[in-house]
Design a protein that fits this description.
By secondary structure, this protein is an alpha/beta fold. It has eight helices and 16 strands. α3 packs parallel to α4.
Length: about 325
């Protein structure tokens, strides 16, 4: 351990193997959280532990498309998180956590519980880089209290996550790491380009489905022109043009997200939605969750339904 209380990578890995459980990554953007999370998961698998990863970095998702929390079991040691096959998704609907954080929190907790239910002894939870400011501190502490991780791996260049670490509940061991020398801070354009590739790759396998709005339930209010519109009133109160390319989550009768879609067209008179979505049949859709971000099938982001800017993670 160095003078700043930072441990070596091997000390962190040994501690996790000695006391398996939920391991939560914490740090700003581009400090190497995803790489470290993947390396920890691979180490746990190599040690013979049943291991899962929950990818809650909604702006730079590797498991599933951006704007979702994804999870997967890790069957063999992997080098990149994108090699992990998704076992399930939780729809958030935006790549920025600020307005939609309750869904990030719900999804992370739910998918972590699913992983534990599948026998995962180690669940590594990757998170967004939103860590600075009062709102971020409060949000991260809510997640920590909800997940009750056995370990937190905090990667920081200076002391940027110390306001969070100072309030960690008892029972959680904090491990501090310095970013690896190879870690590079990406530009906003590079991060947008990554999201575009991820969205485009996801929608490349999609097809058009027509959903009868009279036969489905609608979930989540939508923020439009400064007003939160109730879920059932969105089609009536929001112009069809504004809904074009809005991300939606398509769920089955149990409320499980089957697919993420982007709206191609709204026919308000016939109450039908034409949606581009992957791996889902129209008759299986029982509910539609409204998102915040508008994304074309090409992966190009077209702003938010609210018209409000937000910092993508």
């Amino acid at each position: 351990m160095d003078a700043a209380g930072r441990e070596s990578w091997h000390a962190v890995a040994d501690a996790v193997l000695a006391a398996p459980g939920i391991v939560m990554m914490l740090g700003a953007a581009d400090v190497g959280k995803t790489t470290t999370a993947t390396r920890l998961a691979a180490t746990a698998v190599g040690a013979g532990l049943h291991t899962a990863v929950v990818d809650a970095d909604i702006g730079q998702s590797d498991i599933g498309p951006p704007a979702t929390v994804g999870w997967g079991m890790v069957g063999t040691p992997v080098r990149h998180m994108a090699e992990i096959a998704p076992a399930g998704l939780w729809f958030v609907g935006d790549t920025s956590p600020q307005q939609m954080y309750r869904y990030v929190l719900q999804g992370t907790a739910e998918l972590t519980a699913r992983a534990r239910g599948r026998g995962a002894q180690v669940v590594v939870v990757d998170t967004t880089g939103w860590v600075e400011g009062a709102g971020a501190v409060a949000a991260k502490l809510r997640k920590i209290r909800r997940l009750a991780p056995r370990h937190i791996v905090a990667i920081q260049r200076d002391r940027e996550v110390e306001p969070i670490l100072a309030r960690i509940p008892d029972g959680t061991t904090v491990h501090r790491l310095r970013p690896a020398a190879a870690v590079r801070i990406r530009t906003a354009a590079e991060r947008r380009a990554f999201r575009r590739r991820q969205f485009a790759g996801y929608f490349a396998a999609a097809h058009r489905i027509s959903v009868d709005a009279r036969r489905v339930a609608f979930a989540r209010p939508a923020l439009f022109e400064g007003t939160w519109v109730p879920p059932s009133r969105v089609l009536a109160n929001v112009p069809a043009a504004a809904l074009r390319h809005l991300l939606v989550g398509l769920a089955d009768s149990r409320g499980t997200i089957m697919s993420v879609g982007t709206i191609l067209r709204v026919d308000a008179r016939l109450r039908r939605l034409l949606i581009m979505a992957a791996d889902v049949a129209p008759d299986a859709v029982r509910s539609v969750a409204w998102g915040m971000l508008r994304v074309a099938p090409s992966g190009r982001e077209e702003g938010r339904l609210s018209g409000m800017p937000a910092v993508a993670s």
